[in-house]
Design brief:
The complex is a heterodimer of chains A (334) and B (303). By secondary structure, chain A is mainly alpha-helical. Chain A is built from 14 helices and two strands. In chain A, strand 1 and strand 2 form a beta hairpin. In chain A, helix 1 crosses helix 13, helix 3 packs across helix 12 and helix 5 crosses helix 7. The N terminus and C terminus of chain A are likely disordered. Chain B is mainly alpha-helical and 303 residues long. In chain B, helix 5 packs antiparallel against helix 11, helix 6 crosses helix 9 and helix 10 packs across helix 11. The two termini of chain B are 16 Å apart. The N terminus of chain B is likely disordered. Classes of the chains: A mainly alpha (334), B mainly alpha (303). The interface between A and B is large, with 118 and 125 residues.
């Protein structure tokens, strides 16, 4: 053991190990994040950036890159009445889905924020629509809102009302599509709001109750102000998702791209129609970037409102960011 | 809930038990048992949530002409298996099912693995520029990557991947959100001392990740897996663009089915197909519904 011939190779071996360990310690953090950044650059950043490049050219799906045309694709899109039609439809469907959804989800969360019997059952029951994919939702609701044969038509007839042309008239079609979004997402958002409500300390309610505030008063004076940041968060995710809505209007009448007369063509459907049936990748890319800027603008407006309210508010409840939440932003668009 | 538990006790210690009882009774008053109206409203909401699905099953087991009965038909008929057989004869449904399982499974494994790896690195390892890079991850979460479909489509055409499953799988391999989510979870859940101890014991970095971080990360990995799988399963726009009618996913097959009849579609058969397409996630919901609820609610308070 004490012989130098034995210790020497052992020490060399140790320093090599130490070097290796130090190398391991220094390099591993980068190696662990590298796969994400490399893959995300390829499938996330590059396509968005390259869309900008495509949008500056005449670019055909099959013929490929043509002449450099500067901003003229943008000018063409922004002077196209069909783009503005799609823009109006998107906003209209968004408002018809976001507003009732938020109101009902808040009420539903308040109902669930009590000492319920079987609370797990009730929480699961409102999440049921969430597992139905937008394609199935659209297929089912296209039947429910069938002008002649659906249960809604039957109901209208039973009350002696004129049939509503759900797939032909502008506002009824928006209503039908918004009801698909509402059906799928209301319970989901109610659970997010419920979590925010449960984070409110109960003694706030206790002292309000002791001061004689009734249930309704407590709801408006305590619950709503305390969950306001979460409400705003839900609005932001619904906005990002709502501006990208595609599946529901596409499949409400699958043979068209948003109705025979574009009654419910949304911006992403407009983009889709330009890119694939009409093979104009240049203008479709310009549309993608315009929508990208609209979404960023909507995000900034929401952010400004949030900050204005935050500074006015004393005690914000933590803002949501679950796995499901990110899906919410993506999912409504899928 | 944590607010309830960790609330500082400001009451004097003299008669804690009495005060505890008093407080409990007061709390009950503010957090009272709901009346029948609450249950009636919740039941009505549940009925509304379940109706479209149930009605699809009812019509899918009867005939198309029953769609406009008033009140709506609520009892299933005897034809569901016949209608299901028609669905299988119209679109390659088994293949679509297998494709969707492969696509969603591969995306889930990849997203969960790479997110855990990168999330652990951001949460627990020290390296230069880690804060800046984490900010980059957060910033990219807000980018609607869906808007990059045109170059992505060109890429898939260039690689001759159109019509193949990898055209759907590869663009879904990582998400910025997954990395952020795992980072947020791991930063709290693994004590730094545990990692130090593993290193003192001579564990390599990979060994520490595998034997310390991964076991600790398991609950969050399960939640991330659940939501990633659902997102991949329900996706429509991208599979519609890159998967042909001969190699569909469940969603594109159902869309094709709904367009199959032209001007005179067999509505009963289409709804039977919609029900069939829902069954896999319905099973997932029955098995893991609690975890879904918990995942959504956790996400809402963690952040």
């Amino acid at each position: 053991m004490t012989s130098s011939t034995l210790t020497r190779p052992a020490r060399v071996d140790l320093t090599f190990k130490q070097k290796l360990a130090r190398f391991d310690y220094r390099v591993s953090p980068y190696l662990y994040i590298a796969p994400f950044f490399i893959l995300f650059a390829l499938i996330g950043i590059f396509p968005i950036a390259y869309t900008l490049n495509v949008s500056l050219y005449d670019w055909h799906l099959l013929k490929g890159q043509g002449d450099f045309v500067g901003l003229s694709n943008y000018v063409e899109v922004l002077t196209d009445p069909f783009f503005w039609n799609a823009f109006r439809n998107t906003i209209s469907i968004f408002l018809l889905s976001a507003v009732p959804q938020l109101v009902i989800a808040t009420g539903l969360a308040a109902l669930l924020d009590q000492a319920l019997r079987g609370k797990t059952f009730w929480r699961m029951s409102i999440l049921l629509p969430y597992i139905v994919a937008p394609v199935a939702v659209a297929v089912i609701f296209a039947q429910i809102f069938n002008q002649y044969h659906g249960p809604v038509a039957g109901l209208l007839e039973a009350f002696g009302l004129e049939p509503i042309r759900w797939a032909f008239d502008v506002l009824p079609s928006h209503f039908a599509i918004a009801s698909m979004v509402n059906w799928r997402w209301t319970g989901y958002n109610a659970l997010i709001l419920l979590a925010a409500m449960q984070a409110i300390p109960r003694d706030v309610y206790e002292s309000a109750a002791l001061d004689g505030a009734n249930k309704i008063r407590r709801f408006w004076s305590i619950t709503v102000p305390m969950i306001r940041p979460t409400l705003i968060f839900v609005v932001i995710t619904s906005t990002i998702g709502g501006l990208q809505i595609f599946t529901e209007p596409k499949l409400f009448d699958g043979r068209t791209n948003g109705g025979s007369d574009r009654q419910f063509q949304t911006i992403v459907l407009y983009l889709y129609e330009l890119a694939f049936p009409r093979r104009d990748f240049g203008r479709a890319s310009a549309t993608a970037w315009i929508l990208f800027l609209i979404i960023i603008l909507a995000g900034l407006i929401n952010f400004a409102i949030t900050r204005a309210i935050r500074t006015a508010d004393a005690k914000p409840v933590p803002i949501a960011s679950g796995p499901a939440v990110a899906q919410r932003a993506k999912g409504a668009a899928s | 809930m944590t607010a309830l538990i960790s609330r500082p006790n400001t009451e004097p210690d003299a008669t804690p038990r009495l005060l505890e009882a008093e407080r409990r009774s007061r709390r009950k008053k503010a957090y009272e048992r709901p009346g029948m109206l609450t249950y009636a409203l919740l039941a009505a909401f549940f009925a509304g949530s379940a109706f479209p699905l149930w009605w699809s099953f009812v019509i899918g087991s009867r005939q198309s002409s029953d769609t406009n009965l008033v009140p709506p038909a609520i009892l299933p008929g005897p034809n569901f298996l016949d209608k299901a057989a028609e669905v299988f004869a119209t679109v390659p449904f088994w293949q679509a099912l297998a494709n969707s399982i492969i696509i969603s499974g591969a995306i889930t494994v990849s997203v969960v693995f790479f997110s855990t790896l990168a999330g652990y690195s951001f949460a627990k390892l020290r390296f230069r520029a880690s804060n800046g890079l984490l900010l980059a991850v957060i910033a990219t979460m807000a980018i609607p990557t869906q808007l990059g479909i045109i170059p992505l489509f060109m890429l898939m055409a260039e690689w001759h991947w159109i019509g193949t499953l990898q055209a759907v799988i590869v663009p879904g391999l990582v998400t910025a959100f997954g990395v952020f989510f795992m980072r947020q979870y791991l930063v709290d859940v693994i004590p730094d001392e545990l990692i130090e101890a593993a290193r003192m014991d001579g564990a390599s970095m990979w060994g520490t990740f595998w034997h310390v971080a991964v076991p600790a990360a398991r609950p969050a990995m399960a939640v991330l897996a659940l939501f990633t799988f659902m997102a991949a399963w329900t996706d429509f726009l991208w599979p519609l663009l890159v998967l042909g009618p001969r190699n569909p996913s469940v969603q594109t097959a159902l869309a094709a089915l709904s367009a199959s009849g032209g001007q005179t579609p067999d509505n009963s058969m289409v709804l039977a197909g919609a029900v069939l397409s829902v069954i896999p996630l319905l099973i997932l919901f029955i098995v893991a519904g609690r975890q879904l609820v918990a995942g959504i609610m956790q996400g809402a308070v963690k952040g």
